[in-house]
Every structure is written in structure tokens, then in C-alpha cells.
Amino acid sequence: MEIEILEITHEVLRVLDQALSLNGQTHFFKRETPLLGALPELDSMAVIALISGIEEQFDIVLNDDEISGQIFETVGTLSDFVALKLAH
Fold first, then answer.
1. Vertex 79: Cα angle to 25 and 8 (nearest 5)
2. With contact defined as beta carbons under 8 Å apart, do 60 and 85 qualify?
3. First to last CA, the chain
4. How confident is the model over 49-85, as pLDDT tens digits?
5. What is the distance between the alpha carbons of residues 32 and 79, in angstroms, rounded to a whole number?
6. Segments making up each domain of the chain, as ranges
7. Up-side HSE of residue 2: CA atoms within 13 Å toward CB?
8. Fold type of domain 2-87
9. What are 14-41's pLDDT values in tens digits?
């Protein structure tokens, strides 16, 4: 499971970098890195782009009722959410 979550986190970071046009800044991000409220690039439009990118990358559907600010608190919370979605 440890390797799987690391792979998921790596892909989440790649999608995050692309969706927010961070130009490789995510290379320095860790699971504890805060997202929502900490990254000025992560505004409401960027959240939509990020959700779309995650859905496309992982071939999952994120339902509106599943999405909350808590998911976007840190890299880890977002990665864990994706891992949970992939497990179902």
C-alpha cells in the first residue's frame, strides 16, 4: 500500500503542477504541503481544472457531494482521497 500511495501522490502532484501552471514547483511539495488557502494559484477556477485533471488522469468521477475543502487541505489529503476513490 505504501508504494501505491507514493505513486498516487506523484501523479496527483503532476496533475496539480499542470492544472495550476506551477512550472515544476510541486517537485518540492511533500504530503504535508498545504494547498487550499496556501497556494494563491488554487482559486475556484483552478479547483475545477484540478478536479478535471484528476478525473482524467485516474479515470475516476468525483461527485459534487464528495468534494469539500477538506480534500484540498494538503497534498496528502488530496492523494488519500484519490486512493480511496480508486479502491472503490
1. 85
2. yes
3. 15
4. 999 999 999 999 999 999 999 999 999 999 999 999 9
5. 11
6. 2-87
7. 0
8. 1.10.1200
9. 999 999 999 999 999 999 999 999 999 9
